[in-house]
Design a protein that fits this description.
The complex is a heterodimer of chains A (115) and B (115). Helix content of chain A is 0%, strand content 52%. Chain A is built from no helices and 11 strands. Chain A has strands at residues 4-7, 10-13, 19-25, 31-37, 43-51, 54-57, 65-67, 73-78, 87-94, 104-106, 110-114. Chain A is globular. In chain B, strands 2, 5, 6, 10, 11 and 12 form a 6-stranded mixed sheet that branches. Chain B is 0% helix and 52% strand. With 115 residues, chain B is an all-beta fold. The chains are: A mainly beta (115), B mainly beta (115). At the A-B interface, strand 5 and strand 10 of A face strand 6 and strand 11 of B.
Amino acid sequence: NAGVTQTPKFRVLKTGQSMTLLCAQDMNHEYMYWYRQDPGMGLRLIHYSVGEGTTAKGEVPDGYNVSRLKKQNFLLGLESAAPSQTSVYFCATQLRPGQQDNEQFFGPGTRLTVL
Amino acid sequence: AQSVAQPEDQVNVAEGNPLTVKCTYSVSGNPYLFWYVQYPNRGLQFLLKYITGDNLVKGSYGFEAEFNKSQTSFHLKKPSALVSDSALYFCAVRDIDYGNNRLAFGKGNQVVVIP
């Protein structure tokens, strides 16, 4: 039971390059989230999904796109990377839809540097 | 929007002494509060949550937190700190502005337990 996994663990991009981060979960959770973590700012929500085929914007969605074609996978795309997107990216999942008291389970993170 | 504040950047404590990490919240309605811990180069791990009921919440690894409605606080505590408790601690609140689908995080507190 792997839980929440993220691929890749590290990546260095040049400005303007594109890439996709993959989040995979084997817990059959409905909700999935992408956060970014920057020093002194905590975690900020980029996009989220409440089920297969659905996505929604979080508080910092600009420059990112997402897709949830399969329930177990949530992809985060950067079409044209910028240095401001240098960050650590975390995926999270949540068990029961519509239940406000559920904790979120986090992946190990992807450290992205944009030069 | 719902929010939490963690007023201290770093908390230093001697091993064996009590540990307190402070968190205050600002919400409309009933708060759903969480504490997470992040060890170096790892994802966030859930420690405990307050939804309703007893103001003293017990969680993982000997941690507990006290919900205080009059002071709008949710401080994390441990009676006797261990060196292995050295980590980054995040307070979070469920944010209704995103249909309860976002955790609004504080900036985090670095805890250093001195042997």
